Structures are given as C-alpha cells and as structure tokens.
Amino acid sequence: MRERLCEYLIEQTDDPTLVFITGDLGFRLLEPLRDALGARFINAGVAEQNMIGVAAGLSAKGLNTWVYSIAPFVYARPFEQIRNDIAFHGLPVKLVGNGGGYGYGVHGPSHHALEDYGVLLTLPTFSAYIPVFDEDIFTVARLATETTTPVYLRLGRDERPANYAPPEYEPWRHLIEGGGPVLAVVGPLATTYLSDIAKISYTRRPNLWAVSALPLEKSPPPMTFLDQVELAGTVIAIEEHVQRGGFGADLLRHFTESGVAVKTFRHLYARSHDYGRYGSQNHLRRLSGLDPASVIGLTRDC
After folding, report:
1. pLDDT confidence of residue 29
2. What is the pLDDT of residue 301?
3. What tens digit of pLDDT does each residue of 239-258 get?
4. What residues form DSSP beta bridges with 95?
5. Residue 32 burial (CB count, 10 A)
6. Cα 127 to chain centroid, rounded
7. Separation between Cα atoms, residue 38 and residue 60, nearest integer Å
8. H/E stretch holding 128
9. What is the pLDDT of residue 57?
10. Which residues contact 259 (CB under 8 A, 6 or more apart)?
C-alpha cells in the first residue's frame, strides 16, 4: 500500500501546495517522491513532535500537508502536538501510519499500533481510513485530500487470494455472501479470511463485510448490512486493535442508538501488546484469535 500511495502523490506533484514530511523513514520507497517534490519533500528527522508542529504550521498556511512514518511514531510519540496543534485547530493534515496493528510484529510492542485509530478518533473532527486492498489507495488518498479536517490513514498489507478482483471502494463492502453470521472486519485483515470463508457451504457461510472508514457517524453501516444483522441475529466485529475505543465498541453503540436488534454480538480484537516473545504479524494474530482458523471456528459455534 505504501508504494501505491507514493504513486498517487507523485501524480499530484503538479499541485504547488503539496508538501510531504517524513520522520526519517521510507528509504528505498520514497526516493521517487522526494525527487519529484524537491524542496517540498521534508525529512524532519527523528523528531516527531517537531514534525507535527511543522506540519500544522504548513497546513495553517494553506498547504496540502502529508506526514508519514511507521504507525506508532506518527500518532503515539507526538500525540500532544496532534491534539493541540492539529485537532484543536481543525487543520486538514493527513497523517499516514504504515504497519497498522501487528504490522511490525518482530520489532516488539513498541512498534505495534494497536490503539491508533481509537486514540485519534477521540480528538475533535478526526476521521480515519483503513484501506482493505491496494486499489483502495488512490480513492482513499483523494478523499483525504478533499477532507477539510484532520485525517489518519492506516496502511497495512493486502493479503487477498491470487486472482481476486476486489469491488470498487466503499466505506463498507460486502465481500462474501452467505446464510450464516455477519462478520464486520476493519481494513486489510478482511483479506486474510477470503479463501477460507469461500469454501464453507452457503447455509453456514458468514457474510463477510470489510470496513474502511471511521468513525461510524461519518460512515454508518449500509441498510443491506443492517438487514443481514437483523436476519442472522449474530454479529462478529473483528479488528487488529485493542478492545477499548475501537470499532467493536463503536458498532455496538451504533446498534443501540439505532434500535438494531442483535441477539449475539462478539468482538475479536488484539488481546495484548506483548505476549512475552517476538513473532510475525500472523503469529501475533493467532495468539489474539484473529487468524482464519480461529474466526471460522467461532462462526461454526454461532
């Protein structure tokens, strides 16, 4: 997804207001963008708080300002500056965090981004995009550019099966139809379930939905999703994010406020930042019960 974002921004370099700031990251990836932008490409160094202050100042002057780092360094380390300099002023800075969730698994808990969109969505006027497929990037980046308030882009890995053609971007997409429970999955984690769910017989097969935009008051569930929820009675919200403040809590609140009848609601989430040992993203997903085998096993019990 990083490569697609870089391609998009290179296509936008004719915009004289475009400015890109990196926190000393993106080597072997961002060089083409650096060369295209020239002086409008800024390496802020390992100084994330200052990087956010600079971004806020440039945005306040009317510049189309993008900030890039690996996810924990773009939202956690400079959180006070994001709150005070960007959110309180409603500045349309685009924060790009790469490796959301357990994306940098082997680097340990300091590099996990498991509370990122939950934390940022507590701030005034923030919205978040969590693209599911590589093809989403151009649409999501365009939407972020057009947004007049702060935006967080959480990038991950598109892990869809070979030859799978994704549907066009929507905040909510129905990826697989079935007669079983309803699964609502945030971001590219949904792509890891496609192959296994497709093999289940229709009557037991879950309805798989991918969610790409938060909060829900800005991107509410479509009526088709709500109709399936009322019919199935069972909803499983799945996210590579901690339990508190995440999508699961937001979805349950939406059901309650909208009067949607749900018989059974389950929430699968990142259970821990630190399991005592290092491991890959897939390994940490298994420990949290977010892997395909765990999810499909749960749906059989519903």
Report:
1. 85
2. 73
3. 999 999 999 999 999 999 99
4. 67, 152
5. 13
6. 11
7. 21
8. strand 127-129
9. 98
10. none
How high is the pLDDT of residue 289?
97
Neighbouring-strand partners of residue 209: 174, 184
Distances (CA, A) of 247 to 18, 118, 217, 266: 31, 8, 12, 12
DSSP-derived letter for residue 101 is B
pLDDT given for residue 98 in this prediction: 96
- Quick one: which of 86, 96, 182 has its CA closest to 131? 96
Sequence-distant (6+) residues with CB within 8 A of 198 are 176, 205
| 152 three-state secondary structure | strand
Local structure of residue 84 (DSSP, 8 states): I
Amino acid at 107: H
Q: Which is nearest to 56 in space by CA: 14, 13, 21?
A: 21
Positions of the chain with pLDDT lower than 70, given as ranges:
302
**Structural domains of the chain, ranges and CATH numbers in brackets:** 2-155 (3.40.50.970), 172-300 (3.40.50.920)
Let me know if 135 is exposed, middle or buried by CB neighbors in 10 A (0-12, 13-18, 19+): middle
Cis peptide before 215 (omega within 30 of 0): yes
